Amino acid sequence: MNYRPFGNTGMQVSEIGLGAWQLANPDWGVNDQNEAIQIVQRSLAAGCNFFDTAPGYGKGLSEELLGKALKVAKRDEIVICTKAGYTAAGDADFSTASLRPILETSLRRLQTDYVDILLLHNPARELMDGRVATQYAELERLKQEGKIRAYGVSLDWRAEMEMVMATTQSQAFEVYFNAFYQEMLPAFATAQQQGIGLIVKVPLDSGWLSGRYRGNHRFTDVRDRWSPEVIARRGALVEKFAQIIPADRSMAHAALQFCLAQPAISTVIPGAKSVEQALDNIAAADQQLPAESVQAIYDLW
Q1: How do 3-5 and 12-14 pair as beta strands?
Q2: In the list 63, 180, 228, 300, which could disulfide-bond 109, CB 3.0-4.6 Å?
Q3: Would you give the DSSP letter of residue 103?
């Protein structure tokens, strides 16, 4: 495993982290808690040190399972990222007053005294402006108290990222970025200049870039929201992607390596439903994507 600096925070993070939304989560068609523990611990043994979760993932179960599984690790050798804005029950609450109690509840589930990174979990755009939103002052207080090491926002659009960078002291962004969605890419250089760590969420485009879904696939989990038209369009993009990656590379590895080809990116957090899947994702860091393939993916976008 290779490690990268997380902006200017002093943290070093594995290039491939673990997105923990899927851990024993029936919404994703899985519920084996023992398997979930093994996913975390086998990832840890393979060199993964970055773990991303949120209170709403599995109604708090994701944080609980991480707390149990990571007890085998030295706390200062792992990086835990969680979020605020939604409770374990799924209720939205981005109020400044709720940040501390939501974090305290997460700390109990995670069995730790602090989290390394706390993110506002895709808040409304009016909460991106630190000149008027009071949440960032509270996040700064939590940082000064040692309950968090860095804070920021999980977001989906370049304009949002630029607003947060311009008006807050955020040091962390979880960004929606992959071969099929590169809208935020032009803002990455500024983030790197400002010493902000970037976490890539949805790097496999909810599974489309894994290579497992070809043709007219039908989904029965949380992805059943996609219409037949969306499925057809994405299926066509998958075939184009398959044609432009190296013949010796799986689609999943090429997709993760494309994200890692961006020097501003600190870590990429694919999810996993099994140990095998988690370890295969981690193996993507063993190779780099050729420059011509990276350019072809830019051109595809």
Answers
A1: antiparallel
A2: 63
A3: H
- Asked whether the predicted pLDDT for residue 6 surpasses 80, the reply is yes
Q: Which amino acid is at 36?
A: A
pLDDT at 220 > cutoff 70 = no
The model's pLDDT over 268-295, given as tens digits with 9 standing for 90+, comes to 999 999 999 999 999 999 999 999 999 9
Q: In 3-state terms, what secondary structure has residue 16?
A: strand
CA angle, corner 160, sides to 253 and 201, nearest 5?
Answer: 20
pLDDT in tens, 164-217: 999 999 999 999 999 999 999 999 999 999 999 999 999 999 888 988 877 666
Measured CA distances, 36 to 58, 117, 215 (Å): 12, 22, 30
Active site residue 57: yes
- Report the alpha-carbon distance of residue 115 to residue 146 in Å, rounded: 9
C-alpha 192: how far from chain center: 18
- Beta partners for residue 154, in sequence order: 121, 174
- Tell me how far apart the alpha carbons of residues 205 and 180 are, in angstroms, rounded to a whole number: 7
Partners of residue 86 on adjacent β-strands: 92
Give the pTM: 0.95
Q: What is the DSSP letter of 181?
A: B
Among residues 3, 57, 114, 181, the one annotated as catalytic is 57
